[in-house]
Amino acid sequence: MTLDMPGKVADFLRAAELEPAERAALDQGMTVRRGQGYTLRVRAVPSIHGALLARCQPLDGASAIPAQRKARREYENRVNSIAADVRR
Questions:
Q1: Mind listing the pLDDT tens digit for each residue in 33-46?
Q2: Predicted TM-score (pTM) of this structure
């Protein structure tokens, strides 16, 4: 499955300790410029997207800036939508 990951989420995950499969998915992602920021187009199985989403959970905390929280929520919505499609 291919999902667009907001750049703020990708930046956070690049600095995190990831499993080899998660790191490979990020490294193989294609950068798409979006105005001032970017989106990372990541192709991975739904379980990898779920693991990446779990790793960016700190972006939902009070210490994160609002743009980071919004980016994490957007990625969460995308991951949840593919999970729902897989269950069908």
A1: 978 889 999 999 99
A2: 0.88
